[in-house]
């Protein structure tokens, strides 16, 4: 369903992505791992069509997202959900209004249909009774649940997760991963999960791609990653590589 072909990207003459290629089959979740600053979030935005690569292409069901315009691009994007780092909820809107936002903006559903859909989706992620609260009134974990609800509310075929557990304590982070897993089993979406939750995230994905120095160092099953004898992979998995690479 998702095919990334030879993606290149530079920022201020610093080449961040140097020919990234991988595929995600329909119904799979792929974990995208690697050191901070290596371009994982940039790559995720290119898959969603929010950024364009300098070279290469992203295919969704064999359609080059970079070549689409207008209504055709909008139709393809409607198949996506995107869970941003830290949730990215609108502070001035209630949880109900945040989750309803894509339905109000992108569909012609009636107010009652929107209400029913939002209440049902909040229930799916364990947020029943939070409809009238604002983001500042709920915990970090609940914010991530609300962000997931906002992504699920239109029944997307593809969901992209950009570090959904960043800043959460280990117990809450694990709960968010379990929630993603249960929603995946229930709805069957295709996903890419950018994460540093290793090896916990490996329990909920089918494939893992490690981004290193602008290229995919390894693409394998979770077990294949853990048993790899590649020293770069082993250093990352065991946590002996530290310190982010910064680019602007």
What structural class do the secondary elements suggest?
A: alpha/beta
The name of the CATH topology is Rossmann fold
Q: What portion of residues is helical?
A: 25-40%
Please tally the β strands and state the result: 10
Q: At the fourth CATH level, what is the homologous superfamily?
A: P-loop containing nucleotide triphosphate hydrolases
Instruction: Work out the oligomeric state of the chains in this entry.
Output: single chain
- Order of helices and strands, N to C? EEEHEEHEHHHEHEEEHH
In whole angstroms, how far apart are the ends? 31 Å
Strand content: 15-25%
Low-confidence stretches: 240-248
CATH class: Alpha Beta
Sum up the overall morphology in one term: globular
Query: What does the main sheet amount to?
Result: 6 strands, mixed
Describe this protein's structure.
- With 248 residues, the chain is α/β, with parallel strands linked by helices.
- It has one domain: P-loop containing nucleotide triphosphate hydrolases (Rossmann fold), CATH 3.40.50.300.
- The protein is built from 8 helices and 10 strands.
- Helix 3 crosses helix 4 (111-124), helix 3 (95-106) runs parallel beside helix 5 (140-152) and helix 4 packs across helix 5 (140-152).
- The longest helix has 18 residues, at 170-187.
- The chain is globular and about 55 Å long.
- The model is unreliable at 240-248 (pLDDT under 50).
